Amino acid sequence: MTIYGAEVVLLIVLLSYSGIPCLAKVYTVGDSSGWSLGVDYKTWTSDKTFKVGDTLSFNYGSSHTVSEVSSSDYDGCSAGNAIASYTSGPTNIALNTTGTHYFICGVASHCSGGMKVSVSVSGGGGGGSGSGSSAPSGTTKPTPTPPTGTTTPASSAAFSPAVPLVFGLVLFIFKLVVS
Ligand SMILES: *[C@@H]1O[C@H](CO)[C@@H](O)[C@H](O)[C@H]1NC(C)=O
Ligand SMILES: [Cu+2]
């Protein structure tokens, strides 16, 4: 059975291409410490870059809650006017919009005790065809041009690389079987 060099190269190219798209990341808040007292969340966020489409995963038990709050409520540790509240972990919160998102624990004195985290969310990679003016210079990447002029929704951007990949795989297997 002959291995077709061209097909192997094609497959490798397609495989590497499929890995390129800026996949949304899931960040476990506090890593192994989770969402609890005694964790310095400023340190936790300091080496991370959050993008639209990423997810914060809060791991906690019944002794804590998560509330997304305004900037002033974050400063004042007030969960009374929360944008959203969650009371049973784990809670996954998608970062859908740019800007700073503020999260606190709503249990009395926990926020002032350190259970508060703010994350600055920048524009997601890919899919943003409308507002490219403020893209950081270091993150430019070659963007495959769709055959049609229509804009591609972000949700289908993750799917499209699978189409040539599957096609390449089918072609590869077909050639092996035929040879
Ligand atoms: C983010 O968007 C997804 C998909 O539209 C939605 O299901 C989810 O509720 C949104 N999350 C927040 C926190 O707005
Ligand atoms: Cu708490």
From TrEMBL:
Residues 122-131 have a biased composition (Gly residues). InterPro entries: Cupredoxin (IPR008972), Phytocyanin-like (IPR039391), Phytocyanin_dom (IPR003245). GO terms for molecular function: electron transfer activity; metal ion binding. Pfam families: Cu_bind_like. The keyword Transferase does not apply. Keywords: Glycoprotein, Membrane, Metal-binding, Signal, Transmembrane, Transmembrane helix. Residues 1-24 form the signal peptide. This is Phytocyanin domain-containing protein. The lineage of its organism: Eukaryota, Viridiplantae, Streptophyta, Embryophyta, Tracheophyta.
